Amino acid sequence: MTKFQQMENDGEQIKRFVFGGKSRNGASYVGEKLEILIPELPLPGYSFYTWPSAPVLAWFLWERRQSLINKRILEIGAGTALPGLLAAKCGAHVTLSDCSTLPKTLEHIQRCCRLNNLVPGPGKDIEVIGLTWGLFLEQVLQLGPLDLILGSDVFYDPSVFEDILVTVSFILEANPGAKFICTYQERSADWCIENLLKKWDLCDNRLDRPFTKATAMSSTTAAASTIARGVQKLFVGNLPWTVSTKELKTYFSKYGHVHSTNVIYDKTTGISRGYGFIVFSTREGFTNATNNRLHVLEGRVLDLQPASS
């Protein structure tokens, strides 16, 4: 249930989301209720408004609230962060994230936390970080162990689909038992992520409901199990913009047989983003490459790290 509260001087409107139900306590059932307050602002951008898929994901989590206790959860593209706030209120250890280049968005997420009596900050009730899809900066590399990644209405623009999935794939490989749970609104029959799921070694399990869809994604197992665990996959940063996928493969082939390579390109400009991935067919190739501490291509020293680090 959603209710509206007052309009503040800056145009802020507070939405009140109420979650209720019963849980078993021994032989009897006990009524439970949780209220989440979400401040919304009439500002341009996607992150100051609670989009329709967020309450759907929040209800999905609420119905499984007992399983959230002590879970380590990351919400990407959090915006007003309704699902992540609910998970934190249900006993999970939650990190909320949104684009690192949008400081007002991150400040607003902190406002959402405080309004629900959650103190944001490292070692506090909840953490808020900047995390930009497709960029493997310090915030991504230093993420701790995770059980769940959450995302509501993040698939709103096809130009960012691959950035989202490559980020999710990278994090899941560092956390083989984790899952990515997302809800989305179907905006076009022409939009599809199936090929991208295959490209980034992800499989999906669709949990259809009337008018909404919830999707759980996890690293593939079976034939791709070693890739999913990240033991033979390397992140390669500081790539020269002129280095192609073929050249990257040629360089690393001297260390062992290369299963696949990917240089990540900007879809708008077609220019390399300066990083990519190498997957070796054997552990020996992976070990040989990582044991060599200095890798230089076209005069630039490469930043080489295991994808599970």
Which properties best describe this structure?
309 residues; Rossmann fold; Alpha-Beta Plaits; seven-stranded mixed sheet; four-stranded antiparallel sheet; elongated
How would you describe the overall organization of this protein?
The chain is of the alpha/beta class. The protein folds into 2 domains: 179 residues, Vaccinia Virus protein VP39 (Rossmann fold), CATH 3.40.50.150; 77 residues, 2-Layer Sandwich (Alpha-Beta Plaits). 25% of the residues lie in helices and 33% in strands. It has 9 helices and 16 strands. A 7-stranded mixed sheet has the order 6-5-4-7-8-10-9. It has a 4-stranded antiparallel sheet with strand order 12-13-11-16. Strands 1-2-3 form a 3-stranded antiparallel sheet. Helix 1 runs parallel beside helix 2. It is elongated.
